[in-house]
Amino acid sequence: MLKYDPRKLVREDNPGANPGDLGMFKFVPDDLPDGAPLVVVLHGCGQTAAGYATGAGWTTLAERWGFALLAPEQQAANNQAKCFNWFEAGDIERGQGEAASIRQMVERMRADHAIDPKRIYVTGLSAGGAMAAVLLAAYPEVFSGGGIVAGLPYKSAVGMREALGTMFRGRIKTPVEWGDLVRTASGHTGPWPVVSIWQGNADKTVAASNAVELANQWANVHGAPGPASEGLVNGHRHILLRNPDGKPVVELFEIAGMGHGAPIFPDDPEFPLGEAEAFILPVGISSTLGIARFWGLEPGAVRTEEIVTVPERVEAGGAETPVFTRPAKTGILKKLWKGIKRIVGRT
Q1: pTM score, whole prediction
Q2: Which residues constitute the signal peptide according to the record (predicted)?
Q3: What would the pLDDT profile of 204-242 be if each residue is shown by its tens digit?
């Protein structure tokens, strides 16, 4: 069983307006200075707020680096599997349901703990990752960055039937179609949150193609048609996209051989973080550390001023080619894949 100090996260019984009927937990390190960052951490199905925030290493990192945590928790009355309802129309729109509840909790944290409004971030795993994508789309003016682990694009599904199909098989749209879903969610015109995306390429619960579509959704929103740079980090594929001004705006990690869960590296000799548990997987790389560094939360990191220029809207025809793609299948594997598709009737 996962061991964690229950004092790390405390329940807030008065979160404010709560139309989604979620629980609110928070962790505020001792002597947190005014103007500290806030990270919203959203658990996956069947998990608890404390279990995920601790297992993935967010409580440890918050204490080391000096930021506050907000950890909303789903209730079985809302979803029997305790999944955030990232696919329900009444929970994914600005000002409604679970999205509005989390937004209100952020405001409560800002007021109670003097949080820097320009350094608020959201991350989550699986259903929590998909809900993080919802919050980035519905409230882009609130969040400076997102970290989505085994999640899905905003409005990739509405309703349970669509949600299951999209999870297992993915859903394909053009980058512009994906981007338009985000742009119309709030009426916001920028600047937009930066987004770090993490996905196991052996995930049987959320198809890896969802991460690619999600990355293309945010690449289009940022008006950054590419090209993106690609390399390996700890043996795992990493693609980084910068906007026309040179600022890193979207990154995608594809974790080789990993199934459904959040990657952690508890045995890292330089920075051990996290504790293995169901859907929290020790694979030699930490999504928690990587996401926090992408946001610039590491003490001593050089922080650049937010670029406030608004990118021109990317029209159809100008960015129809996806920036992010899955690795090409070559040689005998490519031939085998084509044969499998013919057998099952896919084109």
Answers
A1: 0.90
A2: none
A3: 999 999 999 999 999 999 997 778 899 999 999 999 999
